[in-house]
């Protein structure tokens, strides 16, 4: 939850999270966009304007690997 960091991203060593070979989920990632890897998959959730119980999911791939993944599953 990046929202709670209050600008102290450098202290986290966040780059290490991206090289461990797993999945990293970052809430409020737009607040640290300068620290995100160039190749990644952004998944954003938002409330529907028409129904508060409905969520709209937007998936944005960055890089060929993630474009291929999205193409294969969507």
Task: Kindly describe this structure.
The chain is an alpha+beta fold and 74 residues long. The chain is 14% helix and 22% strand. The chain is built from 1 helix and 2 strands; from the N terminus they run ββα. The protein has one helix at 64-73; strands spanning 40-47, 55-62. The longest helix is centred in the last third of the chain and has 10 residues, at 64-73. The radius of gyration is 14 Å and the shape is flat.
Radius of gyration, CA atoms, in whole angstroms: 14 Å
- Poorly predicted ranges: none
Reported for the largest beta sheet, the result is:
2 strands, antiparallel
Label the overall shape: flat
Order of H and E elements: EEH
C-alpha end-to-end distance: 28 Å
Oligomer: single chain
What's the tally of helices? Answer: 1
**Into which percent range does the helicity of residues fall?**
10-25%
Placed side by side, the strands forming the largest sheet appear as 1-2
